[in-house]
Specification:
Rossmann fold; single chain; Hnrnp arginine n-methyltransferase1; seven-stranded antiparallel beta sheet; 35% strand; 7 helices; 2 domains; elongated; 306 residues; binds S-adenosylmethionine
Length: 306
């Protein structure tokens, strides 16, 4: 099957890890028996269908697929790509105002890949909050949910940076990874997110184990004078950011870390502070899921010495 795509969807299709994770999850759903609906009445919604690739993966298993795409040029391409499949109907609409009741049927399966790191910059959560009213009681969502983690870092720039296939921010991780939130998309999710996170800074042994001194001598740090910010002999470090990493739970057995085009890790600046090895830094992290990165707020609440 050849897909006609624009440059954005070309990059999405070239990300084989992302595609194979979704394909496997859709095939697993089919193998699991697909709920209670009798053959002939199995319906899927593909929300934010883009090029239509996920509808194409679901097509052999379902009896009817409703694919919805906001962007007109992507919609045109999806329509063209999927034209041979009579059971797929493509709509050019904003899902947030789409009237699902006019379909007169609920979905057995919702597929929705509107993912972005911590679900901040895309509309996965508001879209699912709206659409899942039209999911059957035993219906499933792919992906099933998301797990978010944070680490303390010292980074080169004081603005939000994504570590994606085109850009590599310069930073050093200075503490262990903490899982700070986990969502199941079948639940009603409040888009306004707020959490207190205790970021544990590495102790001296952990710094030694990670080869901290050699690490900051690495040539990628030269331009940014990283060394000047640390006094290793006195175990004094600085942090000025957090690295957020999201893990996508496609189903019970497939959990997918960042891929080139899905949930690249994100570096968020925080107030620059001096810390000692082994300290715990308590921060407040707030954002609106689906509200964009400009909604991210951070505040340092406390530094707890060990
Ligand atoms: C990350 S892309 C995924 C595309 C495709 N499902 C895939 O996996 O290749 C997300 C798509 O959702 C669409 N989208 C975003 N917000 C939307 C909305 N409110 N209603 C409909 N489509 C939307 C975007 O235009 C984009 O094509």
């Amino acid at each position: 099957m050849k897909f006609k795509v624009n440059s954005y969807h070309f990059k999405l299709l070239r990300d084989f890890e992302r595609l194979s994770a979704f394909k496997e999850a859709i095939d697993d759903y089919a193998k699991s028996g697909m709920g209670k609906s009798p053959v002939g009445s199995r319906v899927a919604f593909d929300l934010g269908c883009g090029s239509g690739v996920l509808s194409y993966f679901a097509c052999p298993h379902m009896d009817r697929i409703i694919a919805i795409e906001l962007n007109n040029s992507s919609y045109q391409l999806a329509k063209e790509n999927l034209k041979e499949f009579d059971k797929i109907q493509v709509f050019n609409d904003d899902i947030l105002s789409f009237d699902f009741s006019k379909l007169n049927e609920k979905a057995d399966l919702i597929i929705c890949e509107m993912l972005d790191t911590a679900l901040i910059d895309e509309e996965e959560v508001p879209v699912l909050n709206h659409a899942k009213k039209y999911l059957k009681d035993d219906g499933k969502i792919i992906p099933e949910g998301i797990i978010n983690s944070a680490e303390a870092v010292f980074m080169n720039n004081h603005f939000i940076q994504y570590e994606d296939d085109e850009y590599s921010p310069v930073y050093i991780v200075l503490g262990g990874s903490i899982i700070y939130s986990e969502f199941n998309f079948l639940d009603d999710i409040d888009c306004n997110f707020s959490a207190m996170i205790d970021l544990k800074i590495y102790d001296e042994n952990e710094l030694m184990e990670m080869g901290f001194e050699e690490e900051i001598s690495n040539e990628r740090f030269e331009k940014f004078d990283f060394k000047d910010n640390f006094n290793i002999k006195e175990n004094k470090l600085k942090i000025n950011g957090i690295k957020i990493t999201s893990f996508t739970k496609l189903n019970e057995k497939i959990i997918c870390g960042p891929t080139p085009m899905m949930n690249p890790s994100m570096l968020v600046p925080i107030e620059e502070i001096d810390v000692n090895c082994g300290d715990t830094v308590r921060i407040k992290l707030e954002y609106v899921m689906g509200g964009g990165v400009e909604t991210i707020k951070t505040e340092i609440l406390d530094i707890i010495h060990n």
